[in-house]
């Protein structure tokens, strides 16, 4: 089956009724299969900048970061690369910047850390901007946003970075900026967020954890952690509708996008692109190439009538088997 799927990898990610779904990849360290991947994807939907930071012994300096980011941007150019600012805290600690808290996932995490340490964020933004000189594929994404003021503050720092570089004789363009929708509070602030940013990216891994109040890494409650929970699906339907109404692109970069059934549902909801770990591309592409948009929408309608996660899984399994 893998060989069969592999065979399809150079074919478009398009349904039999002609609906195209851009597939993107999540990256961390530079992928050495870039050349092969590039022809098969629409870009990098999530570059987790904390990953290279995890293997250094201190915060990489501006020069070092500029090199890292340039490498990503150049490797995938002209395709878009969505670079997320540092998302540490929660389960991702840097050895040289330990954070000890009773509830790390509800604590000092992502933007909360970098807004408290603007010097860290400024270096990162300056490096991203410098790296994008002469290219126009940089998109910047802010993680763990809860309040609109956090976006305003991050945008102020972005303006400042652009100004500083200008004063140093380095002219850079303002990149497109987006926020992660991963804290439930943001579901209800889409209008206010849309006034400030260019795009949305749903982090279903964290949105699942926070909406269901289930630690994403705790094996004891792993049975309860389910991105296909009816509550999650309801939120995702609303998010896609809101983004459309607000005329802003919305993508999803959590594990759900890499699950074939999940990808079909997201397509039916109207998500504009799906970003996943590269190994999931073949099966997601295969699912999209086999199921029409009309059928996927029908499936979504059926799924939205169900009451429990178990019913959702049973129904999806039955349909997916029939489509194989
Ligand atoms: C997510 O939360 O879904 C996400 C993509 O980000 P991370 O897994 O890095 O928290
Ligand atoms: Mg997240």
Automatic annotation (TrEMBL):
It is found in: Cytoplasm. It comes from the Bacteria. Belongs to the PEP-utilizing enzyme family. This is phosphoenolpyruvate--protein phosphotransferase. The lineage of its organism: Bacteria, Pseudomonadati, Pseudomonadota, Gammaproteobacteria, Oceanospirillales. The gene is ptsP.
